[in-house]
Amino acid sequence: MTTETAPETRSFEADVAKLLHLMVHSVYSDKDVFLRELISNAADACEKLRYEGLSNPALLGEDGQPRIAVTLDADNRQLIIDDNGIGMSEAEMAEALGTIARSGTKAFMEKIAGAKEAEGSQLIGQFGVGFYSAFMVADHVDVTSRRAGADSAATWSSDGLGTYTIAPADLADAPARGTRVRLHLKEEATAYTQRAMVERTIKAQSGHVPVPIFLKETPDAEPSQIADGAALWTKPKADVTAEEYQDFYRGVAGQFDDPAFTLHYRAEGLHEYTVLAFVPETRPFDLFDPDRAGRMKLYVRRVFITDEAQLLPRYMRFVRGLVDSNDLPLNVSREMIQESPVLAAIQKGVANRILSELDKLSSSDTDRYLKIWDNFGAVLKEGLYEDFTRRDALLGLARFKTTTSAGNWRSLKDYVASLRDNQTAIYYATGPDLDRLASSPQLEGFRARGIEVLLLTDQVDSFWVTGGVDYDGKPFKSVTQGLSDLSLVPLLEGEESAPAASDAVNGFVEFVKATLGDAVSDVRTSERLTESAVCLVAPDHGMDRQLEKLLAGAGRLDAGAKPVLEINPRHALIAKLAEADDGDAALREDAAHLLFDEARIADGELPVDPRAFSARLTRLLDRGLRSAVG
């Protein structure tokens, strides 16, 4: 049956149009990725049909075996990929091929536009844009599809230059079920019509998809099977090579790096399931997507069910792979599966096992573990805030930069082993920059006593430390919060104990407090400071200052608590100001405000009133120059 309906021309979404421009003008040398992406899409379509066929066997008809066929047509410079999967209706084609559904498109395009040639192939496929990689090798793509059970088909066509057409297809030329992707190859891409090239690429990149793959050297040739569709995870671990794991990981994770860590095991007992999980070697670009969705796939007896089952806690979303259960029902909706107690038990078991294996790795191969922590520690620490039941395990895995670590990672076990006499807390400082944090004036007194301080620079650090966390019975305490108890810890050898503040200094402190008024909650002498004149800290029962800044920046805090200004009574400047008589009231008043602004600047903030700050500083410099000249 032939239709006379004219094709309808439509424009791509703006993001797709930009992406296609990048693909069409791609200069990446490794273009093989397009074949992996198209075969992966075909395999997903076959798996979706197998799932829907459980409740509606009529969809399978007489062709119940899933398959993918790749046909070479050198005479016409074409490459065709067929599958007998679920297929698409005309509306579904417009949605799937005219828009980008997954988040992160803008970030993806920024990355791919600025990527080096060698990095390009690692970017394709990580944001749900794998189909469009076909335009790296084709100057025109036709997609003809018939949804299972439908009596009509449609063809989508585009040259990748901004528009596409959709029209009903001639059923005589359409698949009986499934999708056919026909690539009209560019002249420089004719190698993809050669059997050796295509077969080698498919075996290397897609040899372990759970659907058999057949290859035809010409449109009229008999197909030969080049991949058996045997699910890799069903094989004994001893029978799988490192290369096979690597190939499978790249397909399931949409990445082109190597797995930094592989976990393959079969759980038996109350529930039976197989797990094949990978930790990537590099950070996936969707790692910090706002939805924080996991990327683990759920199978039931080798039938793909969903990749939205949230099989792991959100703070383990960097893990890629799958779980194949023998116990979950096949005839239940994907929504109801999420509520299944069996799935809850699987989720618990898989999460605990991954954390346990990471803990073993941290002891057996420290360097490899630290690379994983360097990439994903900030994400794992979200669990310290969210997952009370696994907090102890996560604290054991956590690694930190500290004031004594010389830039190396330290565990809390290492920290506790180095506690100073009379030290009863684990001290930390939070901030956005490691170098600035390490030079914070609030750390001076801790350094003088040899007290190690954790330097926490991830945003999540400001949250989990406030949740009543302790390690080995030691609470976490901010160096910028409340009164310090440094006097209990002896100074290091060679450090001199400071004398008590003089009456003049105490009087100056009271003067500063009165001068600043409501700008601060208190002004007091400091045990924290040994070199700097002043610093700011949070009130005794106030919020940590970095957390306060984060909440205020996110619009979740209208007004923070007034800070405490601490003054170093042993600093030469403070001593000079304390000795100034009442005749220098103007100087002392300017000095009080400048000291407060100095503390704010050291804390990464602007002066309260930049113009007034400039005027006071000018007056002070003028006075100093007059004294020097005179």
Break the fold down into its secondary structure elements and pairings.
Elements: E1 8-11, H1 14-24, H2 33-55, E2 68-73, E3 78-83, H3 90-98, H4 105-114, H5 120-123, E4 138-146, E5 154-158, E6 163-168, E7 178-185, H6 195-206, E8 213-216, E9 224-227, H7 242-253, E10 259-267, E11 273-280, E12 295-300, E13 303-306, E14 320-325, H8 334-337, H9 341-364, H10 366-380, H11 382-386, H12 391-397, E15 399-402, E16 410-411, H13 412-417, E17 426-430, H14 434-438, H15 444-448, E18 453-456, H16 461-464, E19 470-471, E20 474-478, H17 503-516, E21 522-525, E22 534-537, H18 545-553, E23 564-567, H19 572-579, H20 585-602, H21 610-629
Parallel strand pairs: 2-8, 12-14, 17-18, 17-20, 21-23
Antiparallel strand pairs: 1-6, 2-3, 3-7, 4-5, 4-7, 5-6, 8-9, 10-11, 11-14, 12-13, 15-16, 15-18, 19-20, 22-23
Report on the structure:
The structure is a single chain. The termini are far apart. The chain is built from 21 helices and 23 strands. α2 crosses α6 (195-206), α9 packs parallel to α12 (391-397) and α17 (503-516) packs across α19 (572-579). The model is unreliable at 101-105 and 116-128 (pLDDT under 50). The protein has 630 residues and is of the alpha+beta class. It has a nine-stranded mixed β-sheet. Strands 16-15-18-17-20-19 form a six-stranded mixed β-sheet, sandwiched between helices. The protein is elongated, with a radius of gyration of 32 Å.
Give a quick rundown of the structure.
The chain has 21 helices and 23 strands. The chain has 630 residues and is α+β, with helices and mostly antiparallel strands. The protein has three domains: 8-229, Histidine kinase-like ATPase, C-terminal domain (Heat Shock Protein 90, 2-Layer Sandwich), CATH 3.30.565; 233-370, 2-Layer Sandwich (Ribosomal Protein S5, domain 2), CATH 3.30.230; 503-538 and 561-629, Four Helix Bundle (Hemerythrin (Met), subunit A), CATH 1.20.120.
